[in-house]
Amino acid sequence: MQIEKVKNVMLAMQRFSWEQGVAAQAMWEIGEDSLALLMADEAIHRQTEDGRLGVTHPSMDAVDPGANGLPVWWAYRTTGKKIYKEAAEKMAAYFLSAPRSRAGLIFHNADAHRTMIDGVYHMAPFLTAMGHADLALEQIRLFRKVHLDPQTHLYSQIWDDDQNGFSKKEFWGCGVGWMLGALSLTASQLEEREKSAKEELSAYLREGVESFLPWVTEKGLTHDILDDSSTFEETAAVAMTAYAIYRGIQAGILSGRYKETADRFYTIIESFVDEDGYLRQGCDAPTFDRPGVSAEDQAFALMCWAAKRDLEEGAAFRFAGRRLFVSQSGSC
């Protein structure tokens, strides 16, 4: 994959709060530490008083800013500077007291009583890294209780608490991809002694991957709505799933036999990266309802490459677990 070009395209794109976070995560994963630190700085620059990081739309951003949490926490882990520690703690504190649905799920938007399946990615791994694994696992379980379809074992996208029903019941491929990535990334933040939590996440990830695979088309893509062949075929969901598989294997919650599937997806992703570095035929930002390009698709292409590299080289995920790599005495 043309990593430098894919990276440059992503950095040139306008980004909402979650896109800033997942882009910064990609920078950490591919080893661009100096850029990752700059992106963490910008997330802090746009942090609100109540702790939300990288805010671009104050009336809506509630769960999405959490995507910046891990990159900012990783900045503290690698520098020891308290500005990063304090910013990450404020973001975590926001989630601890954030408004919830009747079922107990943290609302996705500040101005609406909705929960969205992609929110699990922005909360659970970060909360686990910050020592709040109980809350992270609670939210994962609640997402399954509310959003998981018992027949297909796929996830519906948007629950509306005011309507007491789904405003978007469809199985959006990218939404499923966010959930699968969240399970692997959360597991990577758990310590070895947290075996029961890892076993629980392992069962959820296996179920999710196996439920996703039947919807992969002959081209190696999925339809935007997984079970609706009239919707466009796109690349983002398979990129997210490949990433989830690679990191799931590394985290010890998924069998290595799934690597062949991830490799097949990776080859497909590569074939859709054009000469300028765009991952084409993803879900087009900012509406995500047509084929196109987006910062999150670029980020997952990069993270997929990094995860594949780490697995094949026998390298541990550099930010696995909650151990600090630097002295906690650093100052800003």
Radius of gyration (CA) equals 18 Å
Share in β-strands:
5-15%
Global shape: globular
Low-confidence stretches: 327-332
Structural class: mainly alpha
Can you characterise this structure?
- The chain is mainly alpha-helical and 332 residues long.
- It is 52% helix and 5% strand.
- The protein is built from 12 helices and 7 strands.
- A hairpin with a 7-residue loop joins strand 6 (282-283) and strand 7 (291-292).
- The longest helix has 19 residues, at 295-313.
- Residues 327-332 have low confidence and may be disordered.
Sum this structure up briefly.
The chain has about 325 residues and is mainly alpha-helical.
Notable features of this structure?
single chain, 332 residues, mainly alpha, two-stranded antiparallel ribbon, 12 helices, disordered C terminus
Can you lay out the helices and strands and say which pair or pack?
Layout lengths: L2 H10 L4 H14 L2 H13 L23 H11 L2 H16 L16 E3 L2 H11 L3 H15 L10 E3 L4 E4 L4 H17 L5 H18 L9 E2 L9 E2 L1 H15 L8 H13 L10 E2 L7 E2 L2 H19 L19
